Amino acid sequence: MFRCSVRLIKGLTQITWLQEQPVLPNLLYRRSVPAAYLPSRALRVTWPCAEEVKDFSLTNPSWSPNMRNLYNKYMELSQQESWKRLPSYNATATHLIEQYPDSAKPQVTTRLFTRNLDVEDLGFEYVMFYNQAEQRTVCSFQAGPYLESPIGFAHGGAIAAIVDTTSGACTICTVGKVKTANLNINYRSPITLGSTVEVQCRVDKIEGRKIFLSTEIRSVNSQVLHAEATALFIQMKMSE
Ligand SMILES: CCCCCCCCCC(=O)SCCNC(=O)CCNC(=O)[C@H](O)C(C)(C)COP(=O)(O)OP(=O)(O)OC[C@H]1O[C@@H](n2cnc3c(N)ncnc32)[C@H](O)[C@@H]1OP(=O)(O)O
């Protein structure tokens, strides 16, 4: 009990530090999600010890120079208010909706798929930025060695996951809670493990509860098109 209290105090220190970062969960973008959009029972999380909260979208030593350059570029743009870095936790993504900042708290039994490793460098290293005015998301993605499929290259499923995540984050920030209904990907050029690519996603149109998006994955110099995708997300009903 005493040990956990000490850890909780350490954790609260960490939360205070998190709140000094340039972008916070409670500053995020959706200002008018209807109250009926309450999290389902399945989305509720427990928070055993606060020190486990970690924002995975901050730089770490495993990031390549290209990852850092893209991060710095969009952090600079964030100073001018056009882009916001999206915090990223290993719990659910619902912290992107203003009503649920607490959902960043770590869970005991489940993890967000793209943040399921405890070590850095091996899996999905990524940071996303959202442009509210343009309804666009960019993601700087470094594919780690545990994402291999053909020798030396990233698995198509891992690429699909980063497309789903980037377009999902874009949609959540634009309209609130959604589910992926359709994802179409054309793989144009393999992504070398360890390399950094830029994922660019935008909302094309919104028709009622249907949100249509398109995504491109390119090399950081934009010369190589690795994949292009379209997605359809469905906004959750008021009762969900
Ligand atoms: C920071 C980290 C951010 C991470 C973000 C990650 C985001 C990842 C999100 C996911 O991966 S969610 C998991 C994968 N997706 C699923 O498991 C969804 C499974 N499918 C469902 O739950 C339902 O089918 C769905 C919620 C998508 C739709 O069911 P609904 O009952 O809410 O809608 P409905 O079937 O009434 O359809 C509404 C409209 O969408 C259309 N629609 C639904 N599914 C479609 C489809 N697959 N293709 C084309 N249109 C579709 C449907 O025709 C209709 O069009 P109209 O309004 O014009 O009549």
Automatic annotation (TrEMBL):
E.C. number: 3.1.2.2
Catalytic reactions on record: hexadecanoyl-CoA + H2O = hexadecanoate + CoA + H(+); (9Z)-octadecenoyl-CoA + H2O = (9Z)-octadecenoate + CoA + H(+); decanoyl-CoA + H2O = decanoate + CoA + H(+); octanoyl-CoA + H2O = octanoate + CoA + H(+)
Subcellular location, record wording: Cell projection, Ruffle membrane; Cytoplasm; Mitochondrion inner membrane; Mitochondrion intermembrane space
GO annotation, biological process: apoptotic process; fatty acid metabolic process
Name of the protein in its database record: Acyl-coenzyme A thioesterase THEM4
Domain Thioesterase, first and last residues per copy: 152-222
Organism: Microcaecilia unicolor
Pfam families for the chain: 4HBT (PF03061)
Membrane topology: Peripheral membrane protein
Predominant location category: membrane
GO molecular function terms listed in the Swiss-Prot or TrEMBL record: hydrolase activity
Annotated Gene Ontology cellular component terms: mitochondrial inner membrane; mitochondrial intermembrane space; ruffle membrane
Domain of life of the organism encoding this protein: Eukaryota
Alphabetically ordered keywords of this record: Apoptosis, Cell membrane, Cell projection, Cytoplasm, Fatty acid metabolism, Hydrolase, Lipid metabolism, Membrane, Mitochondrion, Mitochondrion inner membrane, Transit peptide
InterPro entries: HotDog_dom_sf (IPR029069), THEM4/THEM5_acyl-CoA_thioest (IPR052365), Thioestr_dom (IPR006683)
Similarity comment: Belongs to the THEM4/THEM5 thioesterase family.
Enzyme class, broadest EC rank: hydrolase
Protein's gene: LOC115461681
Upper taxonomic lineage: Eukaryota, Metazoa, Chordata, Craniata, Vertebrata
